[in-house]
Design goal:
alpha/beta, 12 helices, about 20% strand
Length: about 300
């Protein structure tokens, strides 16, 4: 606790106060380090890339890994800067291409789930979501192992109005202030904790367990579902693009929402793979031996609960 506090106040926050170009100088050195002497999680990255792109040559995979390291170190600088970046700077560096989609949903009185994955800069969206859209902003996540860092980082993320809530108590949190429309951010590309409670689909050429929470929330709470992706325009500048999946979740069958946001993410990764977070252990869950029977049970349970 003491060490974490010292690191935060003496090292991290002063570093964050530096101009972003100065932070890039530090992370440029880190980039050189990880492509030469200390390759960060190289085994995990190479395994993920090989499984996801079986038709690519080793040279092509190495190029993607190198580009990912370049992007990853840029994200490190931007993540540090995110702790103290001003609203003015965020508005200049992170823009929405088609905000009218969210404005139309607001006019209809629809709450919204913003769904995507760890693609490009998600931290700047977390921090700026509250002033990007005419909704009360929420983000669903899991707490960090360190209570100190969890408290400090979420406090910085929340300073412009975002409310960070736990996946386990989202219903209680979203039940407050019901007169205010809400937008809820969900990053759904993490590896689920339970293979048997997951939605199984094909993603990047392999059977993949996917979090089903966004689809359940949309049906339980009658939220519209909007997929978003962020495009890198140039170093330190991003544009967010919105795509409506549905404004009537209960009109869709089991799995349609999840299949759609998974396909959107897959398309983005296929086009520019270096911008996805390849360093996380995405495929940790074993495929259930009774998968088809499990899927049928999930479908029947979902239909009985939400379509009866």
């Amino acid at each position: 606790m003491i060490f974490a506090a010292l690191a935060y106040y003496i090292f991290v926050i002063p570093l964050s106060l530096l101009p972003l170009p100065a932070l890039y100088l530090f992370t440029d050195l880190f980039f050189l380090l990880i492509i030469t002497i200390l390759p960060y999680r190289k085994k995990v990255i190479d395994q993920n890339l090989k499984r996801s792109f079986p038709d690519k040559s080793q040279q092509e995979l190495n190029t993607i890994r190198r580009k990912f390291y370049r992007h990853f170190t840029n994200l490190l600088a931007e993540g540090i800067k995110n702790l103290t970046i001003s609203k003015t700077s965020l508005k200049r560096r992170f823009k929405v291409i088609n905000p009218e989609l969210m404005n139309e949903l607001a006019k209809k009185g629809k709450n919204v789930l913003l769904v995507s994955g760890h693609y490009n800069n998600w931290e700047w969206l977390i921090t700026s979501q509250a002033f990007l859209f005419p909704f009360e902003a929420y983000g669903i996540g899991m707490p960090l192992t360190s209570k100190f860092w969890d408290k400090k980082i979420n406090a910085r993320r929340s300073r412009f109005g975002m409310k960070v809530i736990h996946a386990g108590n989202y219903k209680e949190a979203l039940a407050t202030n019901t007169e205010q429309l809400k937008s809820v951010l969900v990053l759904s590309d993490q590896s689920p904790g339970d293979a048997r409670k997951s939605y199984w689909t094909e993603f990047l050429h392999q059977r993949t367990a996917v979090l089903f929470g966004a689809e359940l929330m949309a049906n339980e709470l009658d939220y519209a579902v909007v997929y978003f992706t962020t495009h890198l325009k140039k170093r330190g500048f991003y544009e967010m693009e919105l795509k409506l999946i549905t404004d009537d979740a209960k009109s869709l069958s089991w799995g349609e929402i999840t299949e759609q946001h998974v396909q959107f993410l897959e398309q983005e990764i296929a086009a520019k793979p270096e911008f996805w977070l390849w360093s996380h252990k995405r495929w940790k869950r074993e495929i259930p031996t009774d998968l088809e029977q499990l899927k049928q049970q999930q479908r029947e349970k979902f239909t009985a609960k939400y379509r009866s």
